[in-house]
Amino acid sequence: MIKSYANANERLSAHFRAGEFKCKCCGKIRVDSTLIGFLEQLYAALNCSKIIVSSGYRCTRHDRAVGGSGAGRHTMGMAADICCYGQDGKPIGSKYVACAAEDLGINGIGLNCGGNHSYTHIDSRSAAAKWWGDESVKGYPSIKRINGSTSFYAYCGVSRQDCPYTAPDATIRYGSRGDGVRWLQYMLDAAGYDCGKIDGIAGVKTIAAIRAYQQEHGLAVDGLAGKKTVAALKGATT
Prior knowledge:
The protein is α+β, with helices and mostly antiparallel strands and 238 residues long. The protein contains 8 helices and 7 strands; from the N terminus they run E-E-H-E-H-E-H-E-E-E-H-H-H-H-H. A 5-stranded mixed sheet has the order 3-4-6-5-7, with helices on one face. The protein has a two-stranded antiparallel ribbon with strand order 1-2. The termini are far apart.
């Protein structure tokens, strides 16, 4: 849902306030709640210390002034240009943010926002209007148009084995949540077992992927990711 806000201090979620999305020209604020949800998911997926929004809502005049069409997702309150920071206080490269956004099923992703390799464009467009592009290339073409890539992993040369999450220190079972589950989902996906979105929640698809992996690797098929299953997944990356 897209809403307008008068109070810049109004909290939109755990990590974002309305004023962070204010138009730098007219001062108006419009934000899509779906976009905020995506940003919170990225915050969790990348274990961010903070996310800086460099551009949120734009009035038509401002959008055109910064090189936009005057009718893009920013003018609808559906987009944000962001820089994600890790726990070390340093910016996380756009290629890793784009890969994480891809894993979350986000349809509007702009790599290297404004040509800056620390910034990424994220928007809440529908699947029918999907755009995964590279803003460091003139005209902002899609990565598929540039070299045929259908994934930011391939386009950016990022290996799915370079897992950004921490391995679990306890058995993962149905309903488990957290970074350990994201590690499991990431590693299973890298091994070819579809868990759906990497959301840190061990649901039906994640448990099915665990069971399939166990069956094909001579492990007890119990749908629980304990020490042996985790060790096997770790061994697959060495």
